[in-house]
Amino acid sequence: MGTWALQCLLFLFPMLLPPHGASAGSLHNPGLSECFQVNGADYRGHQNYTGPRGAGRPCLFWDQTQQHSYSSASDPQGRWGLGAHNFCRNPDGDVQPWCYVPETEEGIYWRYCDIPTCHMPGYLGCFVDSGAPPALSGPSGTSTKLTVQVCLRFCRMKGYQLAGVEAGYACFCGSESDLARGRPAPATDCDQICFGHPGQLCGGDGRLGIYEVSVGSCQGNWTAPQGVIYSPDFPDEYGPDRNCSWVLGQMGAVLELTFRLFELADSRDRLELRDASSGNLLRAFDGAHPPPPGPLRLRTAALLLTFRSDARGHAQGFALTYRGLQDTVEDSASAKDSAETTAGDPDGANVSCSPKPGAAQASIGARVFSTVMAISVLLLLILSLLRLLRRRSCLLAPGKGSLALGPSRGPRRSWAVWYRRPRVVALPCPPGDSQAEGPAAGYRPLSASSQSSLRSLISAL
């Protein structure tokens, strides 16, 4: 297309890239996870096969499974996510989402669903443990009451970064250097139920399910631009008389929080959000006053979260994702929603939702400028293409007989093709064809491979 057109493409290419800071990420990124409970009971995705990406067996629709224990009729309020669809769900608190399938000759009528995006943040995956050397090189132990949190707490007290559960009863501790040399295994290999909890998986036979020990910790100081905070003892129920705190700092001018799970026992179990610098109370939630649905934005440079449970407190707890935003404001709809929820909070909230003067106009101006630039570059590309086409010409001279390229054989005339552009000339003419010799004068022949390609193209016309 020429050097000038190539320069235009290079100029346009950055506009087609994702915005600065966007990345594909991994399943450890909370924004890409569809589950925040260890058994996927909160999965509301659209996988409708028992295997990933359409593999496995198709699921039956939940409104057509009345002959079984679970159907849309048994979930009229939609608490379990059942309905007129065939997406994988976990209505009975099993170890992972599942669905009913057409019954086989062996009498199998349901199967688990292998959903790659349904692994809670903090779960790093299933890994091979051959034992020589062990996949995690730190201390280990066994327990007939093992749960995921029991192992996490054990390794956290030992000062390790990672905890691995294996075979339903074994716990191993390790560091990130162990993970770097680990061998990943299929997710379905970690299929052993924890001895201490029928709704949790604790690795498999020679397979470690590895977690970050920060999951379910009672305190922490987070400075990553985004992440997830779980209630204490998660994924187990939090215990009584818990008093925990977490600090989110160096995130930006605005913090965006989204509660993926919120289940407190009663109003005496309370989560407070305070400005870390001043101590001012921004928001407070309890069993009787849950957080609003959707993102919650707080204008603060550092946030202090405190959680206190009553002596009788026992519940699933909470899981919230956070991310830091730059010194920009949400759109008018978000600002309105935040203002309404703030006004309805009995504890009051020092949440600033007012846009800075000229911020909206600047944002609109930037979008208009980007649009105009993109349209201008596209017009330049079109003009360049037209200019290039005008410098090329292709002439088809009909001859007698069937379509053929190359020297004429026999009394019948063949097609003669000429193609021209600067410094490059196309197909030679059939020898002895007086009609072809005139226009083809001064043309150079194409190579044998180019002739073959052109012959295939014309044959398809």
UniProtKB/TrEMBL annotation:
For this protein, the record's Pfam families field holds: CUB (PF00431), Kringle (PF00051), WSC (PF01822)
Q: Identify one Gene Ontology CC term for this UniProt entry.
A: plasma membrane
- Protein's recorded name: Kremen protein
**This protein's record includes keyword Disulfide bond:** yes
The portions of this protein that span the membrane are 364-386
Gene name, please?
Kremen2
Q: Where is this region: Disordered?
A: 331-356
Q: Where is the CUB domain positioned along the sequence?
A: 218-325
**Topology relative to the membrane, per the entry?**
Single-pass type I membrane protein
Locate the Kringle domain: which residues? Answer: 34-118
Q: List the disulfide bonds.
A: 35-118, 59-99, 88-113, 126-190, 151-171, 155-173, 194-202, 218-244
Which keywords has UniProt assigned to this entry? Cell membrane, Disulfide bond, Glycoprotein, Kringle, Membrane, Signal, Transmembrane, Transmembrane helix, Wnt signaling pathway
**Which ranges carry the WSC domain?**
120-214
Could you confirm whether the keyword Glycoprotein appears in this record?
Answer: yes
In terms of SMART domains, this protein maps to: CUB (SM00042), KR (SM00130), WSC (SM00321)
Superkingdom as given in the UniProt entry: Eukaryota
Q: How does it assemble?
A: Interacts with ERLEC1. Forms a ternary complex with DKK1 and LRP6.
- Protein localization: Cell membrane; Membrane
